[in-house]
Write a structure and sequence with these properties.
Blueprint: H1 3-18, E1 31-34, H2 39-43, H3 51-58, E2 63-64, E3 71-79, E4 86-94, E5 100-105
Antiparallel strand pairs: 1-3, 2-3, 3-4, 4-5
Main location: membrane
Keywords: Cell outer membrane, Lipoprotein, Membrane, Palmitate, Signal, Viral envelope protein, Virion
InterPro entries: BamE, BamE-like, BamE_dom
């Protein structure tokens, strides 16, 4: 007679675990990694700049070419919540005098003028109303 409660417990456990949508309910933080590339900084990059100027403008590269020190890679990877990761790679090539000969950005960067929901400006001065008006 113990078979009936055992079967119902197994059916209940299978029903609870089979139709789970918990993965979308759990909050996932935005994860930025690498060099944060902004469009106005990349637009300032010019052929003929030396390595110190590039490092001042963009920061230290994530990766330098292990076979020759004439190529720098700036990689920016961002994953927002449950979206697919978004990666941008800037490759800067130098000559033997350590001046920029060419650079290439694999994909266009998102607009830096774009206002996100987290960047909204809150008005510091609330509208003044008489104390007897509650609505």
């Amino acid at each position: 007679m113990q078979l009936k409660p055992m079967i119902s417990a197994v059916c209940l456990a299978m029903a609870v675990s089979a139709c789970s949508s918990v993965d979308k309910i759990v909050y996932r933080i935005d994860v930025p990694q690498g060099n944060y590339l902004q469009s106005y900084e990349v637009e300032q990059l010019r052929v003929g700049m030396n390595a110190e100027q590039v490092q001042y403008l963009l920061g230290t590269p994530v990766l330098t070419d292990p076979f020759s020190a004439t190529t720098w890679y700036y990689v920016y990877l961002e994953q927002r919540g449950y979206q697919k990761p978004d990666q941008h790679t800037l490759t800067v090539h130098f000559d033997n005098n350590r001046t920029v000969t060419s650079f290439h950005l694999d994909r266009p960067l998102p607009d830096s003028d774009q206002v996100f929901e987290n960047n909204t400006i809150i008005d510091a001065q609330p509208a003044k109303s008489p104390w007897w008006k509650f609505w």
